[in-house]
Amino acid sequence: MHWLIHDYREDDLAAVVHLIDTTAGLGQESVFSLAECIGALTSRQPAVVAVHQGEPIGAALATVAGERAWVMRIAIAPGWRGRGLASALLRELERRLVACRVRRVAYVLPEEELLGEGLHNAGYTRRPAAAYFEKDEPPAGAAGGLLEELGGRLLPGDLWAKVAGMETEKNLIERRVVLPLAEPERAARHGVRPPRAIALFGPPGTGKTTFARAIASRLGWPFVELLPSRLADEGNLAAALRDAFARIGRLERALVFIDEVEEIAPVRTEGARGGMHGVTNELLKLIPGFREGEERLLVCATNSIRSLDPAFLRPGRFDYLIPIGTPDAAARAAIWSRYAAGRADVDLDALVGASELFTPADIEHAARVAAQAAFERDLVAPDGTPAGDSAPDGTPADGTGGGASGDDGASTADYLAAIAQARPTVTPAMIEEFGADITSHARV
Ligand SMILES: Nc1ncnc2c1ncn2[C@@H]1O[C@H](COP(=O)(O)OP(=O)(O)OP(=O)(O)O)[C@@H](O)[C@H]1O
Ligand SMILES: [Mg+2]
């Protein structure tokens, strides 16, 4: 064929919007508005794009609701109509939908048109008795405003996929947390109650915040972070928390994140932290109400689970207490390969071996240092010389040094130098303490 069809990517947005917009008057309009189509694209609903010589010439997009998907739009550039492109796009789109466990695909066309016959040929049946009704609901301004007031927002849809490595934690969180929330009916059939509150604990920089954001992204729920320091500005922290939870209760769905939760729910017998008793008590009272709602999840993160009030963490309040530790060798390899993807000759095994006890944050930092070294070397390289001929210590970088572009980016030596300079956040003593915390606190 003369075209290639790929999954929709973020940088296709302008071209696809243009296609949808400019073909609307050509008998290709849809019952879905342009804004709804953009909403589906940006929230990562299934969509495919056809390209000819680098130019987007067609797109098909759908929105999934449980086992049913609605084809929202098939847009074909004027010169490409009647050449089978719509059918090809639809076939590709259907493959994606089936992969999302869709069992029925519906396509509502405004009226009988060219595509109608094509749909027949593609195995679609026209439901003769069906009539399509539509009602315009008043804009949900209140809920939107509420989310904004709470500082909440919808995150990009791909954050879960961007969590590199950490397969053990990812797997656990997916099975215990994400899937029961994403498929509550199926969970209920097996007597599984979806979790309403979880705590993530582990040393600094291991990815607790990253996981919380990734869960929200994966569920497609807004992410609302409650910042005690900001709430305290309103005067009375306990009252501000009560108010925030009341507002959250009015949201349709939300993932609520409290970082460094030990600051607001410390062991109450410590006594020293004056004023926090009331706040801890308030939070203890708020959690049961929060748990009654559906489509909501409280995620608390802490570096120091042992300094949390035990009553706060007990099973009726928190469903799971999940440890997030330093990445093992496989996870480090996955994280390093994210950063070193530009150069095929980087010796990942060497980086993995040299970065034991490194957290994802440490790896990210070392990768930045190495990239900066390569960049600075490039700046001082004489005109026309391929950059990156030698590492900072003067040893030749691995790789051939032949093609200029192949040498772009940090080399193995750059990375190893950055690793040698770095001071890992996590010490063996912290690992030991974390191991003890897992024994005494983890609930998975
Ligand atoms: N699995 C991962 N793959 C790639 N990068 C990661 C991963 N996990 C974390 N990072 C990166 O490491 C940095 C630290 O992660 P994050 O802030 O989630 O850690 P944290 O456990 O919340 O730390 P803290 O305890 O200090 O709050 C972030 O910049 C994040 O992008
Ligand atoms: Mg964090």
Rg, rounded, reads: 26 Å
Helix- and strand-based class?
alpha/beta
Domain count: the total is 3
Quote the average pLDDT. 86
CATH superfamily of the largest domain: P-loop containing nucleotide triphosphate hydrolases
Q: How many DSSP E strands?
A: 10
Strand order of the largest sheet: 1-2-3-4-5
Number of H- or I-type helical stretches:
18
Helix content: 40-55%
The H-and-E topology, N to C, reads as: EHHEEEHEHHHHHEHEHHEHEHEHHHHH
CATH topology term of the largest domain = Rossmann fold
Defining traits:
444 residues, alpha/beta, Aminopeptidase, Rossmann fold, 3 domains, five-stranded mixed sheet, five-stranded parallel sheet, 18 helices, 10 strands, binds adenosine-5'-triphosphate, binds magnesium ion
Describe this structure as you would to a colleague.
The protein is globular and about 75 Å long. The chain has a five-stranded mixed β-sheet, sandwiched between helices. The protein has a five-stranded parallel β-sheet with strand order 7-8-9-6-10, with helices on both faces. The chain has 18 helices and ten strands. The chain has three domains: 4-121, Gcn5-related N-acetyltransferase (GNAT) (Aminopeptidase), CATH 3.40.630; 142-324, P-loop containing nucleotide triphosphate hydrolases (Rossmann fold), CATH 3.40.50.300; 329-425, no CATH class. The protein is an alpha/beta fold and 444 residues long. Mean pLDDT is 86; it is low at 387-405. The chain has helices at 13-23, 34-42, 85-99, 114-121, 141-149, 159-162, 167-182, 184-189, 208-219, 228-233, 237-249, 276-292, 310-313, 329-339, 348-354, 360-380, 412-421, 428-441; strands at 4-7, 47-52, 55-65, 68-76, 104-106, 197-201, 223-225, 254-258, 296-302, 320-323. Residues 208-209, 259, 301 line the site of magnesium ion (MG).
